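Archive entry: two folds, one per protein. Generate the first.
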Amino acid sequence: MSGRRRTRAPKRVRSVIGDQPAFSQPRRSLPPRELLDPEQIERIHEASLRVLAETGMDFLHPTALKMWSEAGCKVDGERVRFDPALITELVSHAPAHFTLHGRDASRNLEIGGDWLAYSSVASAPNYVGLDGERRTGDRAGFQDLLKIGQMLNTVHVFGGYPVEPVDLHASVRHLECAYDAHTLSDKPFHIYSLGRQRNLDGIEMARISRGIDDETLDNEPSLTTIINASSPLKYDEPMLEGILQMSARNQVVVITPFTLAGAMAPITLGGALVQQNAEALAGMAFTQLVRKGAPVMYGGFTSNVDMRSGSPAFGTPEYAKAAIAGGQLARRYGVPYRSSNVSASNAVDAQAGYESMLALWGAIEGGVNFLMHGAGWMEGGLHASYAKMVMDADLLHMVNAFLTPIDTSDDALAVDAIAAVGPAGHFFGEAHTQARYTSEFYGPMVSDWRNWETWTEGGSPIASERATKAAAEILENYEPPAIADGVKEELRDFVDRRIAEGGVKTDY
């Protein structure tokens, strides 16, 4: 089936949203920032190993407990205490770099090193669409957000459901969502680790979508899953089942402790980082216990809470600092790093912009390889926004441009152009300028650089209004990606068969 694959270049969207740069994966030309010195990193490392050896972690899965016991760990009920040497040895097998494969080979992503990959918003329970109304997640909103993410060239991957479509019953939701994702987009998709059968279904649908056999899938990571520690110091059964199934098939596991300083982790940033690191090390080690060499990422998501309400705070200085330190720890273990673009703002306003920019910059400075929630996250993750997806796409374009090296070739240094213009001239009409106008600049989707007099004509729309208009145009211009002959039908047949079998068991 792979021989029948048809490919098509991504549609270029013009007019209000400008002319996007073509889909491509950026690389970081600047070295990551070192917020902590080597001695501080080693202190966090040693403290993390001490936590794992003395306090240990709860693993709520009988197979995991048996595997740890056979590996020589001290297992007392559900509590596992680890030999530091075992943790270090297992983590050493995790790859520093791997390729995440898309349905179309042009969507393949390199994960690790100086490569960056940006995910759309994921896992929001609500969304705000074109009319500005906040709604509980449904399939219509889920499909719209998939379409926007497919058309935005700065979105590389879907790290989960952009919004949870609760109008689909939980027993079959994973099937219909994967069908939509594999047919409305050709970018890599995600599995939620919420039980063994959901993992198996998602893995099989990824195989069908790519038109490959099981052996090829096992050699070519094509899916991601997020594994959250139930902080503090616990991995529950669904998360561990996700590692067992995904790592066994050589698919990508992103270990992400959910450590909020003052709530599920110590209130000091140093203490929160120790707990994050201990939980991450235990999770990464388990992936390698399942299958040495299986792809895994170190996820950092440490932030603080508003101690007046207990609500998570995002886009704060503490979050940015933790993001940078998390990247240093990931590099300490030689594995790719996941961070996030986040904001706690309820509206697409100045707060949303500056919190996202600070969080994004912390991730970039931290050396992020896989940026979760890169476009569309709002309200601390409680809703996804069409307008914010477009605005975040602008932010990501700006980051990409910033990370592009300065060209110092003879032609770029422009000595001849300067001589041709001479004193008191201008460069607007110079051939050196005109040759680069379309290749080095793009029309931003939201930014509006007109002067005040022309900008105020027609009601002076604010950024969120312009972004909403751009989102509407993206949806109007949406085109489904090409798909190999028969694959869509095979996916539909699989979904229909699994639905007829009852999907997965639920409590309702």
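Generate the second and append.
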Amino acid sequence: MIMITGGAYQGKIEFAEKLLSADRSSFVNGSECEFDEIFGAICVNEYHLLVRRLIAENHDPLGFTEEFCRRSPDTAVIINEIGAGIIPLEKSDRQWRENAGRCGRIIAEHSDKVYRICCGIPMLIKGE
């Protein structure tokens, strides 16, 4: 598994395309896919939005992420860093942010490589 993280609009998708030698049209988008589409995908983009959808539909995002990592060890995951900045006022937004962070930790734990992208520059923070 490969995890690619960083802030919004930092070049994560472009980096994933180069790293995986794949076009983004082959990536599954967490903001709109069926939940089971991510299993075995080459790459899941916007995993943080998938977490939001899981919560909205009363699924356990942590259990789902654990299952995803077990069943899809060769998948790359793109997830935005959303834990920095002002703490959201809305309880649902705080829960989403906390769960997205916890899911990111699960994905990072299962990943052989973790990249953080900042200003289009990839930094390998786990792996060789």
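Annotation attached to the second fold: Helices lie at 12-20, 47-56, 61-71, 91-110. The chain is about 40% helix and 20% strand.
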